[in-house]
Each structure stands twice: as C-alpha cells, then as structure tokens.
Amino acid sequence: MDYHVELKRVTRVFAKNGEQIRALDGVDLAVARGSWTVVVGLSGSGKSTMLSLIGGLDRATEGEVWVAGNDLGKLSSDALADFRREKVGFVFQSFNLVPTFTALENVCLPFVPYKVARAQAEKKALEVLEQVGMLARANHLPGELSGGEQQRVAIARALVNDPELLLADEPTGELDTRTGEKVLELLSKLHRERGMTIVMTSHDPRIAEQAPAVVRLEDGRVVAHAT
Amino acid sequence: MLQYALKELTRRKSRSLLVIFGIVICTALLASALCISQAMRNAASQPFQSANADIIIQRELAECPFALVKHAGKLGAIPEESIQQIRELPGVDMAAGVLELWVTSGPDETDRAVVTGVDPDYQHKLGPTKQGEDCCTLTDHEIGGRYLYVTDDHTCLVEEPYAKKHGLKLGSTLLLGGEEFTVVGTLRAAEGARIAAGEIYVTLRDAQAMLGEGEVVNAVLVRAENQKAAAEIEKKVREIVKVDTDQGERLALTTDSNVMSSVAGVAILAQSANRWMAGLVVLVVFLLVVKSSLSSVSERMREIGTMKALGWRDRHVARLLALESGLVGLIGGLIGTGAGYGAALGYTSSTTLRLPALLNSYPACAKTPPPLDMQFSLAGCGPLVVGAFLVALSIGVLSGYLAARRAGKLPPAEALRRV
Ligand SMILES: Nc1ncnc2c1ncn2[C@@H]1O[C@H](COP(=O)(O)OP(=O)(O)OP(=O)(O)O)[C@@H](O)[C@H]1O
Ligand SMILES: [Mg+2]
C-alpha cells in the first residue's frame, strides 16, 4: 500500500547537559493518504518531536522518514524548506501569528520571500480565509481576535499553499472546550472537502475517542496504533 | 519583505528609535569631526597655496623696536645670501625673500603703510603678489598697469583697497619714508589670508634702501619639490639661518601643518579629542547595535521557527533580519551624516581664524583691511561624509549579518520550542 507518511525505526536523541534523551525510540508508523490520525500520549512522550520529523522541521538521529515518496533525511535544508512550502501545512498550539500583521497579511506570509504577485497572493489568501469563515475579519490584527478566531486564521495560513499533509500540534490546546470543538469541526470539514492527510496531536482523551486512527506514544515508543 | 522589515521595526519602536539615535549620534560626531578637521586643513593650506610656498622662514625678535621705517611687527633681518644657500638645498624648487616694512607715509609722514619689498624675479610665482586666481591680478593691466621690473627705481604696486582709499591711479605718486614712489600697477587680491601681504609693494632693492640695514630680507618663502623634501629642508634651514636665542630670538618655520597650532591650539586639541570620541562612540554604538540585533533574534525565535515551518528558506529569514538592521543603519546614517555636515557647516561659518601675526602683521592703526582671515571651506569633505555614512551603514549591515547568521542557522524545530 502507498502510505503518505512512513516512519521506519525512527529514533531521535537529544543530548542535554551530557544526558541523552530518547524523545523517539525506534518508532515505526504508517499513515495512509487522506487519513486522519491523532497522536496521543503524556507530556514529554514525544508527540511534538514526531510531528517535527514528519514535517521536515527536524531530522531523525536514526531511521528513515518518508513523506510522499521523499526520504526527508536525504534532503538539504533548502530542499526541506521547499518541501514544507509545497507539501505541508502547520498549525501550532499557540497560533504563532505575527502580531503586527493583519489576518490577511499573516495568511500571505508564506509568499513573502517568493516572487508571487501581491494581488494573486491576496486572492488566494482571501479564498482560504473564506473557507475558515474569517473573511469578514481579514483586516483585523491578531490582538483583535479571540483565540478560536486566531486559530482559524492560522489554519487558513496553513492551507494557503494547498498542502496535501496538514500537521497540527495540539491545535485545541489553548482553547476552551467549545471553541476547541468548533476548530475540530472546521478541520474535519476541510479534511472532507480537500481530502488531505491530517496528523495532529492531542492531550484530550475525547478527541482520541472520536478519531478514526489513534497512535499512542509512551516514552518515545508507539504502544498502540488503532484504526 | 521590505514591508515586513519596516513593520517589524515599528513594532519595536522604542528600541528601533534608540538604535537609530545611537547611530545618528555616532555618524554625526564622525562626520562633523572629519569635516571640521578637513576644513581646518583647508584653511591652513589656503594662505600657503595663495603664496605658492611650503615653508616660511622668519626670525622673530623678542623686542619690537621703533623707527620711522622698520621691520613689520617683531620680524628680524635675515641676510640675503642665506636665500642663495637655501636655493641650493636638495628638494628646493624655488625660494624668494621678501622684506615687509612698516613705513611712514603721506605728505606729513603721519600715516603708516605696510610696504613689502618683493624680488621682481619671483613676484609672479612666489609670495604675496603671486599672479593667479587664488592670489593676485592686475586691475589696470589693459591700460598699462604692470608688475615691477628689476631695473625699476622708486616704483610701486598698490593693493586695490589702498589705492581706492588714497585715490591712487596708474602714474600717481606717493610718499613712503619721505621718498616719492610712482604707481605702476594696481593689484586685486582674492579673499583670504595672504602671507607677508602689504598695502604697497616695491622692489626688494628699494625696500632695503629704505630700511638701511643692507642686503636683508625678513621672510624667506620656500617652495619644496614635495612633502618629503619639505621636512628635510626644514631641518637644514636651522643651520643656515642663525638666531641669537640668548636675546630671546626665535627662528620661526611655518608650514601648513604647524600654522594651525599657533592660532588654534585649543581648537586642534578639541579636534583630536573629538576624533577619539567619535571613534569610541562608533565602537560603543556598534556593540549596542549588535547586541540589539542578536537579542532581537532570541526574542523572535518562535516567529523565526514559524517562518521556516511555512517554507521560508534559511537565507530568506537571514535576509529579513539583515534588511531590518540595514534599514536602521541607512536611516541612522542619513540623518547622522546630515546632522554632522550641518554641524560642520555651522562651526566653520561661525568661526574665523587669523593668520599668525608673524606671517602678516599689519599695525593696529592700519586703514585698509589686512588680508588675515584664513578661509574655512568644506571642500573635500564630501568623501568624508560618504565615509561616515558608510560606517553607519556597515554598523547596520554587519550587525544584521551577525543576527542573520544566527537566525539562519537556527534549526526550525528548536526555534519553535522556545517561548
Ligand atoms: N530540542 C530539545 N532538546 C532537548 N530535549 C528535547 C528537545 N526537544 C524535545 N526534547 C525532549 O524530548 C522529549 C519529548 O518531547 P516532545 O516535545 O516531543 O513531547 P510532547 O509529547 O510533545 O510533550 P507535550 O505534550 O508536553 O507537548 C521531552 O522529554 C523533551 O524534553
Ligand atoms: Mg508537544
């Protein structure tokens, strides 16, 4: 079967003050194209580390990370940047919006270093803002938006390059339960409409219950993989 | 990208302003220090250029004797044969003596005039009557006005203000030390200080006859072949021209590099202090800007991580940070050089420096204005201002480069973990 994401015996070791921390320890994982996977586990179990490796933000100490046919370990840092720009969308727990930029400008951020005509970039950005229901707030600064609204803008930013893989690290972590549910609803709508692969992490057991596929991490090892 | 950089700078307004302010201060100091010392050098070299000389050799007496016809000011006699010896020194292009006198004038001998005896062989090319834009031209040349001839007897050139004051024309006569002289030409002089300039010029022979001390001069102007030769000549001259130090006499060798110290000692001191200060401030500001740029990187770790997660390459992030610092340097540099140039302009136009008394000593009762003011000019200051601007810009660019390097190298996952 053609997996979208495949981890083969992946180990990530951090050296800290002479001590070695095995954040991931020989992890095998296969994620089908167009699936929705939730990674759960206690704090420090290696969830964020796994997501970083899949998104090419970090490199495995051992093992191979394959995404959409690319062996990420073999890509240069520029090639990894291009890979992220073309294939991956990131959503973070704390939104990571630039506070001086309006919602629209934040969504345009991925285009800034490239020669994309402003009008074209803005057209694309408005399109995705509409999809996340934030068109009306396009010209607001993050400070003028609620947490849930900020996360919607961040999701729009992650979608502006039409990624086939969306990685979300605790996207509801800083939101109250109801707002969090709304954001999840939005993600699931986008998942249906766009057919993209989603890998997200969560602390919340209820999210895990509803998820079509769950990966449970414990001390850097996969202890359960349910579909 | 530029818009992003500008927004980032306005976001951290107080810090950006502080850094810009620092750069403004240091460039302004640097630009003004450089320009003012350039202006001083210009002012110092102007009288020498006007006379076409590099070294002026004079004997300064301790006392200032009184007589109807006397050496100007405190000048003492130098025997004419010394000039020939000086001409034979290696590196001497030419040398000429002048005899600057204070002489009674007018029918009742109640006025005093400054009369300079010049060597007719050198009057065009060296000394107070040098022909040229930066010194003297004959105003009555078309109607027969001329310089002095070696064969002249009791003839004189008069400076235009003196001629106007006394109604003198070509062919007019005037009394100097009781003897009658005929005007053969009127000189118009360029503005600025002139060494050994008088109101009236006669041949060296006539001046020596008036003074009655034999074949003497009281200033020797030397044109050296080059700067290095000038330094050598200065040493040798001390053996040729003897002074009686026991009597409090002094051999005065004036060049454009030492003329300032006798008239503007304090200013020169302030200048070098200023330059040191500018250097120090540049260093401090550089460190400040580097510190600020680097801490901007650590404060923005998360933002940098986000950018990289969104597909920015390392060099794009680096470019953004370099651009920010570069902009700070550019803005600070522009304002700073502007302010520095303005300060230099203000200083030079509000300060006047007079030629040292030895080089041109009009009596206190002189009625036509003595050419004493050394001309400040900011000529040649342009490249210095550009240099100061480049210093400011490189402070910005260099600190930007350091910050950019750090941000570029940052592993994205690591950056995103920072709070
Ligand atoms: N850059 C790093 N340097 C040192 N140790 C690190 C680094 N990144 C992660 N770790 C360690 O690796 C382990 C896994 O971290 P990770 O962030 O993946 O956990 P997590 O499951 O995402 O936790 P949380 O639920 O709190 O976000 C932790 O013990 C963490 O301290
Ligand atoms: Mg985490």
At a glance:
The complex is a heterodimer of chains A (227) and B (419). With 227 residues, chain A is of the alpha/beta class.
Largest sheet of chain A: 6 strands, mixed
- Rg of chain B computed from alpha carbons, rounded to a whole number of angstroms: 31 Å
Overall strand count of chain A: 10
Q: What's the CATH topology name of chain A?
A: Rossmann fold
The residue-averaged pLDDT of chain A reads 92
Biggest beta sheet attributes of chain B: 12 strands, mixed
H-E order of chain A:
EEEHEEHEHHHEHEHEE
Mean pLDDT of chain B: 88
Beta-strand content of chain B: 15-25%
| Straight-line distance between termini of chain B | 24 Å
What does this structure look like?
The complex is a heterodimer of chains A (227) and B (419). Chain A is of the alpha/beta class and 227 residues long. Chain A has one domain: Rossmann fold (3-Layer(aba) Sandwich), CATH 3.40.50. Chain A contains 7 helices and 10 strands. Chain A has helices at residues 47-54, 77-87, 103-108, 118-131, 147-159, 177-194, 205-210; strands at residues 3-16, 19-32, 36-41, 62-67, 70-71, 88-91, 165-169, 197-202, 213-218, 221-226. In chain A, the strands form 2 sheets. Chain A has a 6-stranded mixed sheet. In chain A, strand 7 (165-169), helix 6 (177-194) and strand 8 form a beta-alpha-beta unit. The longest helix of chain A has 18 residues, at 177-194. The two termini of chain A are 15 Å apart. Chain B has 419 residues and is of the alpha+beta class. Chain B has 2 domains: 2-46 and 265-417, no CATH class; 55-255, no CATH class. Helices cover 49% and strands 19% of the residues of chain B. Chain B contains 11 helices and 16 strands. In chain B, the strands form 3 sheets. In chain B, strands 1, 2, 3, 5, 6, 7, 8, 9, 10, 11, 13 and 14 form a 12-stranded mixed sheet that branches. A two-stranded antiparallel ribbon of chain B has the order 4-12. In chain B, strands 15-16 form a two-stranded antiparallel ribbon. In chain B, strand 5 (92-105) and strand 6 (111-118) form a beta hairpin. The two termini of chain B are 24 Å apart. The mean pLDDT of chain B is 88. The interface between A and B is medium-sized, with 26 and 28 residues. Residues 14, 16, 21, 23, 41, 43-49 of chain A line the site of adenosine-5'-triphosphate.
